[in-house]
Design a protein that fits this description.
4-stranded mixed β-sheet, binds flavin-adenine dinucleotide, 28% strand, 3 domains, Uridine Diphospho-n-acetylenolpyruvylglucosamine Reductase, domain 1, globular, 348 residues, alpha+beta, Uridine Diphospho-n-acetylenolpyruvylglucosamine Reductase, domain 3, Uridine Diphospho-n-acetylenolpyruvylglucosamine Reductase, domain 2, 21 strands, 5-stranded antiparallel β-sheet
Length: 348
């Protein structure tokens, strides 16, 4: 189905009221010929193309002047080998529903990644992660469609170059890669992943109980986008030189401190924002969430400009107070395609 000049408010969890010039709902690979023709037309007209999942990691800074392809490819198939369950999952399946389905069918492994919004096809893009698990821990391979050639390709886990909130799909030369299906492997011999201090000590260790605890903790900590627009963690946790982290820790002994290797330490962006006294800070309809400083929220009528100004205030405050440059995790999209905070702030 194709829509024109369509509102994106229902298609991004920030609930920003932007429009898409053309919105293509891709629900079946039999639509490929029609999609290819449209992609060619966009390329000739020099119009941007955006692949969209559930819009839970995107800030629409403006109306989008080109083609948005909303990935709605469904289907789950399971193969059982001696030691593992091998799942082939359509890119349009809801991620949390997949986790729930696995737990309900005694296939543990994904429980730490419960309640992360979005669809399966977006999970590899930033290698979603929570509570010590990442998408990469379960991904065997995935299939993508090259929008420019119309050809399907299969890539292995190693070829995806997964890293902290990163993969090959974030690179500029992979912007035409539309993930259609992922292959996951869940071990029959289930092992719990690293626990998190915010989970109950009395945790009864089964995949289901961990799943339930994580759902409970996340529901208490994070605002539900259906009630309060947001895109989850707005900034990435910064990885800094050990000397920088040690100096800060000497001044703030309770500061979260996660060594990455001998020379680098990951800090908690939410802690830095809270320490800069920004919890609850508001610009227009956008605010720093009072319960979780890493989340910027739409209090109901925020414009994209409100969110951009608030993000810049946070970035600048952390730079001034700690001399640390925060990078945003949320993807910024303007009229012509992907942009970033530095460029977006010039236009508000
Ligand atoms: C309340 C809340 C909590 C969150 N918690 C976490 C968390 O704990 N951990 C975490 O990692 N993230 C978290 N997020 C961020 C977000 O849920 C993830 O990034 C998720 O994977 C985005 O999925 P989506 O379908 O909404 O993608 P979208 O926002 O629609 O797209 C994100 C990016 O992926 C690209 N993309 C989407 N689908 C495809 C595809 N099929 N092929 C190629 N590219 C594609 C888009 O072009 C875009 O660049 C949270 C968000 C919210 C709102």
């Amino acid at each position: 189905m194709i829509e024109t000049n369509c509102s994106l408010k229902a298609f991004n969890t920030f609930s920003i009221d932007a429009t898409a010039h053309i919105l293509f709902h891709l629900s079946d690979l039999t639509q490929l010929a029609e999609l290819s023709a449209l992609v060619k037309k966009m390329r000739v007209q020099n119009k941007p193309i955006l692949i969209l999942g559930a819009g839970s990691n995107i800030l629409f800074c403006d109306d989008f002047s080109g083609l948005i392809i909303k990935v709605e490819l469904l289907g789950i198939s399971i193969e059982t080998t001696e030691n593992d369950y091998i799942l082939q999952v359509g890119a349009g399946e809801n991620w949390h529903d997949l986790v729930t389905y696995c737990i309900d069918n005694d296939m543990g492994g994904l429980e730490n990644l419960a309640l992360i919004p979005g669809v399966v096809g977006a999970a590899p893009v930033q290698n979603i992660g929570a509570y010590g698990s990442e998408f990469k821990d379960f991904c065997v391979a995935l299939e993508y469609l090259d929008l420019d050639t119309g050809k399907l390709h299969k890539v292995s886990n190693a070829q995806c170059q997964f890293a902290y909130r990163d993969s090959i799909f974030k690179q500029a030369n992979m912007r035409s890669a539309l993930i259609t299906q992922v292959t996951l492997k869940l071990a029959k011999q289930w092992q719990p992943k690293q626990r998190n201090a915010s989970l109950s000590d009395a945790l009864d260790v089964s995949a289901k109980s961990i799943y339930q605890s994580i759902c409970q903790v996340r529901a208490e900590k994070l605002p539900d986008p259906s009630e309060l627009g947001n895109a989850g963690s707005f900034f990435k946790n910064p990885v800094v030189k050990k000397e920088v982290a040690d100096k800060l820790r000497a001044e703030n002994p309770n500061m979260p401190y996660y060594p990455q290797d001998a020379e680098h330490v990951k800090l908690a962006a939410g802690w830095l924002i809270e320490k800069a006294d920004l919890k609850g800070r508001q610009i227009g309809g956008a605010a720093v969430h009072k319960k979780q400083a890493l989340v910027l929220i739409n209090k109901g009528n925020a414009s994209a400009q409100d969110v951009i100004k608030l993000a810049e205030l946070v970035r600048q405050s952390i730079k001034d107070k700690f001399n640390i440059e925060l990078q945003h995790e949320v993807r910024f999209m303007d009229k012509l395609g992907e942009t970033d905070l530095a460029r977006a702030i010039q236009n508000v």
